[in-house]
Amino acid sequence: MVYKSIQRRRPFRLDTVAAIGGLLLALTLFPLRFFASQIYLNTVPILLGTACALYLIALYQENARGLPTLPAAVSMTLPSLVLSGLAGLVMLTVLQGTRTPLFFGVASLLGTLLLGQILFTNDQTFKPGLVLLQVVLFAFVFRFTALYVTPGYIGIDIWTHVELTTAILEEGSLGAISHDKHFASPLYHLLVASSALLYGVPIRTALYLSVGLVMPLSILLVYAGTNLLVAQRWATLAATCYALASHVAMWGMHLIPTSLGLVFFLAVLYALLRVMRIEYTFRDFSLLLLLSVAVILTHQVSTFIMLVLLLAAFIAQIVFVVGPLGLDRLDTSVFRAKKPVNLVGLVAFNFGLTIFVWSLTPYREDSFLATVLSFFTQTLEESAGFLNIASDSAADSTETSTETTQTLLEQIVPYVDALGFLFLLGATFVGCLYVVHRRRAEQSVFTLLLAAAFMLVFVLGLPMFGIRNFIPTRWFAFLYAPMAILGAIGLRTLYGKLSPALVVSVLLIFVLVFPGAMIFAAESNADNPVFADQHERLAYSDAELTAAASIGELTGSPSGSDIRPDQRLHTDHPYQTLISRTGVYPSTTAATVPDDGVANHDYVVYRTTQSTEATFFRDADGNGRIEQITRDRICRPDQAIVYTNGEVSMCTPSPASM
């Protein structure tokens, strides 16, 4: 390690100022933990300060010695170990009948071996093609083992989309869903329906052979986009980090329009980087336009996220045309100097088409655009406010308890779920500092920086003010794409600048912790949660599926308008979504179970999962919470059991009590 001379230190460069500003911002945000209890308020300031400190250390060091690498024999053995481990995962799943904590532990180890091949092998033994093959196979095995052992489907919204696709198949027309908001964004349903007709298979198989197959392959788009900016080793790192990401894995198992929208979004991101990095042709720009239209016709939330990306690219264009960052001083050894791409027409077209389509989309007795604007206005008027932190259903259960009444596990689990994201966010901060250097800044990397920043506002910023109208949990998988690319750039920066001892420590922690943190996060194991006491299982057994169908036969599956308020069916969440969304009994909702009390409903459904795993009920104040209840707290002794199969029971008013 050789320290730079005083004369060569330039403390007032933009990246230096940004790093110092990041440190000051971290110090400013740190006291917020004393005003509100929220995981990101507790961790992001520390993470930001650490990333800025590491960058400043790297800024004034030069690594004069090579970093230690694995012996060639070990490096050449790792691919065989990974492939053997993947075969072991398949055998383990078949033998155990589900993905158990042992499965996730082995998968975490394989993820570590994948990252180790990228970061700790020399140039002679590093084979990017072979590593990419392992990454794609890992993604296939990790997702399809869950799909294989799960009866029915994984997730909540999927049941609605299967019903919509079935309606299209039965009527042979898109008019079958003309009442639904997906009527104006039907690509997902048409793809699955056409696959079912083409292959001559049920909808479930058609879904897996279409959207299910595309999801793991879309990882290659992240690699291709990153490779336009950096060398293959770091492009492979970005693709691997993206493949391991928890929310990305979730949309590879919970296959809904968000999944297909994510695929098209990644294609848009690649096409956008491509036109910014090469001397593009009309064909390249036409492809970008076509892909953006595909997103609009697939999913509304994906469309909004894509518009944020395009807006970031447009602002990056303005910065380099009229702003202080010119291309005359660009370091061509880092990025090739290229005139900014004019995106005015593309942005205007997509915003205009989106507004037009949303204006024609039916949603809750009005257009989708009018309804969404109405919801947003209502939120601003009624519940928005600084540190008025809103949370999703998974976190609501912890919000209702004070810290003193929480067990150690309840306090740790949220940090386990967020740890992988936080590790990648720290690498992203370093990557952002690297690309704001005036000699490295250009439109493509600034687009990634601005897109990540804007998306973080929607994911982390607006919820701090009680605004969750934009469904921030849907954004993570999209956000992981620019984060993975910038994170790879950030780790490359530390790799080449920090002293060997420090860089090995940083990379080793990342390699050992990141895969396991992502794989043990709730989104990666929704089919069989590792922390079953803290996270609901979004998959059902054969008995639970059979019970739902039998309840429909028993009741005649009445329409919602035929059910009186006192005839509403009550059970836990998420089981109530299965019963209502499949049309078995449309008027089904979560049961109210007071603390240490019993449910006071006439028609209820009990399943043994309610006593053994995490399920949601409402308390007397109407707040959702996780609770494990005994059978007699929901199916009272004075009720009659009209259906049971050992795992699921339906209870109604007893004739003797009427």
TrEMBL record:
Domain of life, per lineage: Archaea
Cell compartments where the protein resides: Cell membrane
Membrane topology listed for this record: Multi-pass membrane protein
Gene Ontology cellular component annotations, sorted alphabetically: plasma membrane
A single BP term in Gene Ontology: lipid biosynthetic process
Regions that span the bilayer: 12-33, 39-60, 72-95, 101-120, 132-154, 183-201, 208-231, 251-273, 280-298, 304-327, 339-360, 418-436, 448-471, 477-495, 502-522
Coiled coil residues, start to end: none
Keywords from the named record: Cell membrane, Glycosyltransferase, Membrane, Transferase, Transmembrane, Transmembrane helix
GO molecular function, one term: pentosyltransferase activity
Main location class: membrane
Name of the protein in question: Uncharacterized protein
Organism, scientific name: Natronosalvus hydrolyticus
